[in-house]
Specification:
Elements: H1 7-31, H2 34-59, H3 75-104, H4 113-141, H5 146-152, H6 157-185, H7 189-218, H8 224-234, E1 240-252, E2 255-264, H9 270-287, E3 291-299
Helix pairs in contact: 1-2, 1-4, 1-6, 2-3, 2-6, 2-7, 3-7, 4-6, 6-7, 8-9
Length: 307
């Protein structure tokens, strides 16, 4: 997996979530807090999600085969989509169910120091993981806003980890609020309300992730800056005079397909056109290194609607 795949962020999140999940389940066992149980399942689901992302990155490295001539780069998109499903079902739906049960059958939170202590530890650990994800994202985010980065990123791993960590931090605050209000009022319903809020948050994040990874699975073009670079690289002003039309498609986060019809001089020989195409391909790869699969069709430009 390339650096833009956010391997460091995934590993940091995996380690943090495993430690936090264990601590939350211990706290639930001693306190009976449903928020702790929901948060424990959430952290366990997140750990599985990071495992899926790492697995997807490994599978995406496989060489192309006759059955899959363009390789397996989209494996990363598939596993990113699976993460959104796991987050929705195991994380969000379970928390909603647990919150409903807690509101319907409330009971007092026992041994309050367990959930409060674990939540404090979890906030620190998730903060470290979130900081790592932000640091890695900033290396490739450029001038994009955070919503733009999540929307436009072609590698699914960093947006997934960012949203998971953000959701985890907000969920921990909600859990802490639910436990705190339950302790202050002596009413366990607040613990259930906090759990319900966690469930709603996780479902919303899962829906955002599902929408973004679905778009990647369907196939997205190169971003506007890369398209402009490719168009500029294609035209040399001598043999290749213009781009008649062009299509780009991400075969994976770091692999781009370029297909274009280019205009050449009407009196060029076949050998001259072939050399021009080879030179154009070289210019494209120099301008946009991830453009690895390139198909160029030479044609004579005619300014008509049927061009």
């Amino acid at each position: 997996m390339s650096a833009s795949g956010g391997t460091k962020a995934i590993v940091a999140a995996l380690g943090a979530n495993l430690a936090i999940a264990a601590a939350k389940f211990v706290a639930f066992a001693f306190s009976g807090s449903s928020s702790m149980l929901a948060e424990g399942v959430h952290s366990l689901a997140d750990s599985g999600n990071q495992g899926l992302l790492l697995l997807g990155g490994k599978k995406a490295k496989r060489e192309a085969t006759p059955e899959h001539p363009f390789g397996y780069g989209r494996e990363r998109y598939i596993y990113g989509f699976l993460v959104s499903i796991v987050l929705f079902t195991i994380g969000g739906v379970f928390a909603l169910y647990e919150g409903y049960e807690k509101i319907k059958h409330p009971h007092e939170v026992e041994h309050w120091y367990w959930p409060v202590g674990v939540l404090a530890f979890a906030i620190i650990a998730e903060g470290f993981s979130f900081r790592t994800a932000i640091k890695e994202s900033n290396e490739i985010r450029g001038k994009q806003s955070w919503p733009q980065f999540v929307r436009r990123a072609k590698a699914p791993e960093l947006p997934v980890v960012l949203l998971e960590d953000f959701g985890a931090l907000v969920g921990l605050v909600l859990a802490l609020g639910g436990v705190g209000l339950a302790l202050l009022t002596g009413d366990g319903v607040w613990d259930g309300i906090g759990t319900l809020c966690i469930g709603v948050l996780l479902v919303l994040i899962a829906l955002v992730l599902a929408a973004e990874t679905k778009s990647l699975l369907l196939g997205e073009a190169a971003d506007v800056n890369e398209v402009a670079k490719i168009r500029e690289a294609l035209v040399d002003g001598e043999t290749v005079t213009r781009v008649i039309h062009m299509r780009t498609l991400h075969l994976g986060p770091e692999e781009l397909l370029v297909a274009a019809k280019i205009a050449v001089q009407h009196d060029d020989t076949a050998a001259e056109v072939a050399r021009a195409i080879d030179a154009a391909e070289a210019r494209i790869r120099e301008a946009v290194p991830i453009a690895r699969v390139i198909y160029l069709e030479p044609d004579i430009f005619r300014a008509s609607p049927t061009t």
